[in-house]
Automatic annotation (TrEMBL):
Primary subcellular site in the record, as a coarse category: membrane
Gene3D superfamilies: Cadherins
Compartments (UniProt record): Cell membrane
Source organism: Zalophus californianus (California sealion)
Name of the protein: LOW QUALITY PROTEIN: protocadherin alpha-10-like
Length: 787
């Protein structure tokens, strides 16, 4: 069909269009209606009969019927009025799903003539479906480490409606981390996308709950929502940390092994392996410190693992690393400052640094003998040392400087009283309990020649018998010197002097070393009774010191001189005793007891040895002699009156004997001529008288001698007692040639003597030692006194 369009007027145009439409309708046989879904039963759809050009009346006869393929009886036609209406609920979404066009195709069939009409009933959408999310909760796991603007597409909602009703807009609940972005897809659908607008932090917000709401474009609008559960996954973004960067710990030295020093607790905000930590010493920790401490890498306990000695090191700086097991791992640090406290575990040490030994005994007070230094490795009071010295020594400690002392002489020394000192220096610290140490110093005192040799007595008395053999040892002097070595080496010498014509050294000598005194030649009592001299002792010190001792050597008498007869006074003849005869004239008239003659003799010896006794030798014929001789005076007297029977010439032999042992004798011959009375020549008488005078003198001498002996003996006994008392304890002087112990008895007041002497061997060495009581025999002493 061709349409020629001639625009004349609008009304004409509309008419034309209508005609065209009708023509098309008729031609295609199609009628178009539309009905909203979900319309109620009976909702008018269209006047289908009319629209198909059918008369109402003919509907029934022509068997008007509607057929719908597969859609049943959604729509019905009222045959009375030819109206198509909604029969049952029409759900567009059920019919057509999500297709934009949705229509129900109806075939309208009439018979007589059979005609088929196609009717399209468009089902129009209404907003009857809300947007729907497939799940009510959507979980997202997002690592906290995701960067900003990271995108996380979400599953969108779906809306069963179409068109505007299915146009969805999304909305996200307010939050600080995410913003919503919408991606418009080609199919008009939209995909919501979460965009990270702020860094996540698991440690702050381990999970987020957001609400995503979808709203469709219908009127009224419907909404649907989904919960977005966002799990923030941990990233190892937190280093382990200690609550302090520096820990200060104090501990005593010598702590037991495995003592806990500190228990470190690091924390890590991360989780899982990211918060599993390993403790370790930092590489900064020197190996010396590592040896001392043990780190438990799991628990963070630091324990002692070796001896902790304050004196080695009093602080330790331990840098500790703690590393988590994340990837990459993160490390935290701290420093443990261990302050080691001192314990008094070190004894003081005493060092004697220099010694000026030995010390001379004449050293000045204040002389420094040694330097002493003390030390203590501890600190504080534990290291404060005080030094003390053995008490009661002549030394003292002088502190020169902190912990330095001088050992100084405090008072004068005397080697002879104390020759060495064992000093002990004690150093004691002020710890509690305190420790101490000692050092010994042996101070030897060096000798100085300050002592002269000393004899036990200032004077010794020695008795030597005369006629000693030459070189006889008579005495030993001995001096002691309190000094040492050469200062005590004593040598003896004689202090020379003259003895009469001769030098002392011709009599005696002294052995320089032994101090033995020798008599060089036989001594003669008759010549020299007392030899007094000095022996000097000198030591070998520089300068030498010396002292003198006096020796009194008494030469004891021996009976070495026989009695000597004296010539009659007036005869002037020599004293030869032996054959010298005395002639006397004796008057026959003399009575008994008349002294007619006297034998005179002397003895060069002394004492008993010089004490003479006289006795008459019996006459050869055995005739009784009318004479006798007085035992001690030598006076010859008559025993009876003479008579004619007596021979005119009488020859008497008088034995003169001394009292020595053995006694020595001399024999005097006395010739007596008996004359008648008055016949006695004047000369003779004169001679006799003279002789009598001499005799009287001799008798006097003898009496004096006896008196003197007795007096001296008494004196001697007294002196002996005194002497014994004084010298009782004194060491005996030695004299090898000294006589044996004499015994002295004074028996009568008249002066009768008896003297006996126990003879010992001569010159018996070490034998005869004179006791304090050993004194020369009284006569000898008398002679000495006479001098
Ligand atoms: C670490 O934890 C232990 C056990 O709880 C505790 O005894 C110790 O004192 C802690 N260490 C520090 C330095 O706080
Ligand atoms: C301390 O104990 C540990 C473990 O028992 C040991 O290895 C170490 O030798 C000990 N240290 C000392 C000084 O005894
Ligand atoms: C010893 O005697 C001698 C001689 O008499 C004398 O020179 C000397 O000084 C005396 N020595 C002493 C220590 O008295």
């Amino acid at each position: 069909m061709m349409l020629v369009y001639t625009p004349s007027s609008p009304r004409a145009l509309r008419l034309l269009l209508l005609l065209l439409l009708a023509a098309w309708k008729a031609g295609s046989g199609q009628v178009h209606y539309s009905v909203p879904e979900e319309a109620k039963h009976g909702t008018f759809v269209g006047r289908i009969a009319q629209d198909l050009g059918l008369e109402l009346a003919e509907l029934v006869p022509r068997l008007f019927r509607v057929a719908s393929k597969g859609h049943g009886d959604l729509l019905e036609v009222n045959l009375q009025n030819g109206i198509l209406f909604v029969n049952s609920r029409i759900d567009r979404e059920e019919l057509c799903g999500r297709s934009a066009e949705c229509s129900i195709h109806l075939e309208v069939i009439v018979d007589r003539p059979l005609q088929v009409f196609h009717v399209e009933v468009e089902v129009k959408d209404i907003n009857d479906n809300p947007p729907v999310f497939s799940v009510s909760e959507q979980k997202l796991s997002i690592p906290e480490s995701r960067l900003l603007d990271s995108r996380f597409p979400l599953e969108g909602a779906s809306d069963a409606d179409v068109g505007e009703n299915a146009v969805l807009t999304y909305r996200l609940s307010p939050n600080e981390f995410f913003i919503l972005d919408i991606i418009n897809r080609k199919d008009k659908a939209k995909t919501p996308v979460l965009v990270l607008g702020k860094m996540l932090d698991r440690e702050e917000n381990p999970q987020l709950q957001l609400l995503l709401t979808a709203t469709d474009g219908g009127k009224p609008e419907y909404t649907g929502s989904v919960t977005l559960l966002i799990l923030v996954l941990d990233a190892n973004d937190n280093a382990p940390i200690f609550d302090r960067s520096v820990y200060e710990v104090k501990m005593y030295e010598n702590s037991a092994n495995q003592t806990l020093v500190i228990w470190l607790n690091a924390s890590d905000a991360d989780e899982g392996v990211n918060k599993e930590m390993i403790y370790s010493f930092s590489s900064l920790v020197p190996s010396s410190t590592r040896r001392k401490f043990l780190m438990n890498e799991k628990t963070g306990e630091i324990r002692v693992n070796d001896a902790i000695d304050f004196e080695d090191s009093n602080t330790y700086e331990i840098h500790v690393d703690v590393t988590d097991k994340g990837n990459p791992p993160m490390v935290g640090h701290c420093t443990v400052l261990v302050e080691v406290l001192d314990e008094n575990d070190n004894s003081p040490e005493v060092v004697i640094t220099s010694l000026a030994l030995p010390v001379r005994e004449d050293a000045q007070v204040g002389s420094v003998i040694a330097l002493i230094s003390v030390s203590d490795r501890d600190s504080g009071a534990n290291g404060q040392v005080t030094c003390t010295l053995t008490p009661r020594v002549p030394f003292k400690l002088v502190s020169t400087f902190k912990n330095y002392y001088s050992l100084v002489l405090d008072s004068a020394l005397d080697r002879e009283s104390v020759s060495d000192y064992a000093l002990v220096v004690t150093a004691r610290d002020a710890g509690s309990p305190s420790l101490s140490a000692t050092a010994s110093v042996s101070v030897e005192v060096a000798d100085v020649n300050d002592n002269a040799p000393a004899f036990a007595q200032p004077e010794y008395t020695v008795f030597v018998k005369e006629n000693n053999p030459p070189g006889c040892h008579i005495f030993t002097v001995s001096a002691r010197d309190a000094d040492a070595q050469e200062n005590a080496l004593v040598s003896y010498s004689l202090v020379e002097r003259r003895v009469g014509e001769r030098a002392l050294s011709s009599y005696v000598s002294v052995h320089a070393e032994s101090g033995k005194v020798y008599a060089l030649q036989p001594l003669d009592h008759e010549e020299l009774e007392l030899l007094q001299f000095q022996v000097s002792a000198r030591d070998a010190g520089v300068p030498p010191l010396g002292s003198n001792v006096t020796l009194q050597v008494f030469v004891l008498d021996e009976n070495d001189n026989a009695p000597a007869l004296l010539p009659r006074p007036g005869t002037g003849g020599g004293g030869g005793g032996g054959g010298g005869a005395v002639s006397e004239l004796v008057s026959r008239s003399v009575g008994a007891g008349h002294v007619v003659a006297k034998v005179r003799a002397v003895d060069a010896d002394s004492g008993y040895n010089a004490w003479l006794s006289y006795e008459l030798q019996p006459a050869a014929g055995g005739a009784r002699s009318p004479f006798r001789v007085a035992l001690y005076t030598g006076e010859i007297s008559t025993t009876r009156t003479l008579d004619e029977a007596d021979s005119p010439r009488q020859r008497l032999l008088v034995l003169v004997k001394d009292h020595g042992e053995p006694a020595l004798t001399a024999t005097a011959t006395v010739l007596l001529s008996l004359v008648e009375s008055g016949q006695a020549p004047k000369a003779s008488s004169r001679v006799l008288a003279g002789a009598a005078g001499a005799e009287t003198a001799l008798v006097d001498v003898n009496v004096y001698l006896i008196i003197a002996i007795c007096a001296v003996s008494s004196l001697l006994v007294l002196t002996l007692l005194l002497y014994t008392a004084l010298r009782c304890s004194a060491p005996p002087a030695e004299g090898a040639c000294a006589p044996g112990k004499p015994t002295l008895v004074c028996s009568s007041a008249v002066g009768s003597w008896s003297y006996s002497q126990q003879r010992r061997q001569r010159c018996a060495p070490r034998r005869a030692r004179p006791r304090p009581t050993s004194w020369p025999s009284a006569p000898a002493f008398l002679r000495v006194l006479d001098l």
